[in-house]
Specification:
Two copies of one chain form a homodimer. By secondary structure, chain A is an alpha/beta fold. Chain A has one domain: Alpha/beta knot, CATH 3.40.1280.10. Chain A contains six helices and seven strands; from the N terminus they run αβαβαβαβββαβα. A seven-stranded parallel β-sheet of chain A has the order 3-2-1-6-4-7-5. In chain A, α2 packs parallel to α3 and α2 runs parallel beside α6. Chain A is globular, with a radius of gyration of 16 Å. The first copy, chain A, starts with 13 loop residues before the first helix and ends with a helix.
């Protein structure tokens, strides 16, 4: 087993990325404080060919040096826009027939290991602030809450890690269907 | 759907965590440069009840303020030790009958969506340096290379995100088996 060199990775150019068919997923960042987490969102969205990121409220936007440190150029490939409030973003997604799932710890949540992601509908996943999580008002407007089961002393996965896990679960379903 | 309060999360105390049955997984950090990524490894290992983390080479160790910023206390629950070289850690794991998988992009890699994780054997997952990845020497000593399929312009998921995704895949298999 030999590690692949960068030129062997079959990476898309930014132009090829823009033309490529995307997964019908929108990533909604609800007041994410850390620019590191924003950068990571771009990098993960690039890796998994995600359709769009919506940066809401206090979430930082490109161009930004701190975002770029983690995004490593993925801000040039992934489509994004800014919304003043997360509710505004949700309203527009709803009008465009997206299913909306908040990723949170809530009563009546769906556990990530029990969800059947085989739908052709567009899905928006909402990830919340590092301290306060997804706003309750946004949860009230969602089609459901997705919860990553946790078993330890903290129950507080890093939001970048949560984004990776939830998006991977969707990607995997597409790859294996 | 109501967000759960901290006291409703059924979080384990550190004492309960120490006594709880763990997943038979060891996380090997092969010369991870960023203390942020080390902290995230602890937090994810805490969430998923991982048996142990081995911090190798230049990887920072607790106690450390920067690690703690991301670990949020998970350094108190998760068992860890330090190994001067990753090869040394691998050798000891091998003697204790662990299967050893490097997480990398390599020829003859197994794609994460195609792996059947239903084994009772202990598994060690090796995650590599942010720039150089897992050492080729370590890959040569591994039972296999696991690759997270990526489709964008970078093929470079953040190592914390990769750890979350690979561990989740194992956790999910345990939950659903």
């Amino acid at each position: 087993m030999q590690k692949l060199k960068n030129k062997e990775l079959k990476r898309l150019s930014t132009e090829e990325f823009k033309k490529a068919e995307k997964l019908p997923i929108v990533l909604v960042l609800d007041n994410i404080r850390s620019l590191n987490n924003v950068g990571s969102a771009f990098r993960t969205a690039d890796a998994f060919l995600i359709k769009k990121i919506i940066l809401c409220g206090v979430t930082g936007c490109p161009p930004n040096k701190e975002i770029e440190k983690t995004a490593l150029g993925a801000t040039n490939s992934v489509v994004w826009n800014y919304a003043k409030t997360t509710m505004e973003a949700i309203k527009e997604l709803r009008e465009n027939n997206y299913l909306i799932y908040a990723v949170e710890q809530a009563d009546k949540s769906m556990k990530l290991n029990e969800i059947d992601f085989t739908t052709d509908a567009g899905i928006a996943f909402v990830f919340g602030n590092e301290v306060y999580g997804v706003e309750q008002g946004v949860i009230d407007e969602s089609d459901g809450v997705i919860e990553i089961p946790q078993f330890g002393t903290k129950h507080s996965l890093n939001v970048s890690v949560s984004m990776g896990i939830v998006l991977w679960e969707f990607v995997k379903n597409k790859l294996n269907s």
